[in-house]
Amino acid sequence: MNPKIAIVAGSSRTGSFNRRLAMELARHLAKTDVKLTILDLADYPLPIYDADTEDENGVPNHALDLARQIARQDGLLLVSPEYNSSVPPLLKNAVDWVSRVRRIDDRPVLPFKGLVVGLASISTGQNGGMKGLEAWRPILRSVGAEVITAQCSVPRAREAFDEEGALADDRIRMRFDALLESLVDVSRSLARTMAQD
């Protein structure tokens, strides 16, 4: 079975290194047998999560649409910036809203439950956003996702890409190959299990 995998960058900033990395990883995944979806958070603008807002107005339509997309996937690759050694607010807010969705198209659903998630980052600093990735793990587990062990971060973002937009460092490319292979394999296994249930 061909696994369904989505990629989402945790930044909508023009010129974002994380968006560039997400597009490069999408290019590699497109060469495999996965059914690839690219999710751009700029297409799903959301207010800051507030329980009063949810009580008064319900879950916003953009959160429902994003939850619908995520619920269709076997795997998700989050390419996340690091903000002050933690997660970026744009992506965290999207996860918070999507985690509030309980029904889609009159069917009960928990969008993240059992979803296989891989983590990647890039940063201008020396650690490549690694602290932010570690901060994501308990958050994603708390909403029911299966976060794979393999992850990859790219330091010194301004030097990370060659003239064609590919990752310039062979060792980093090999680590990303291992991350993508693990994400595809575990997602395929989950998709097969779900198909048999």
Automatic annotation (TrEMBL):
SUPFAM superfamilies, sorted: Flavoproteins (SSF52218)
Pfam families: FMN_red
Cellular component GO terms, alphabetical: cytosol
A single GO molecular function term of this UniProt record: oxidoreductase activity
Chain ranges of the NADPH-dependent FMN reductase-like domain: 3-157
The protein, known as: NADPH-dependent FMN reductase-like domain-containing protein
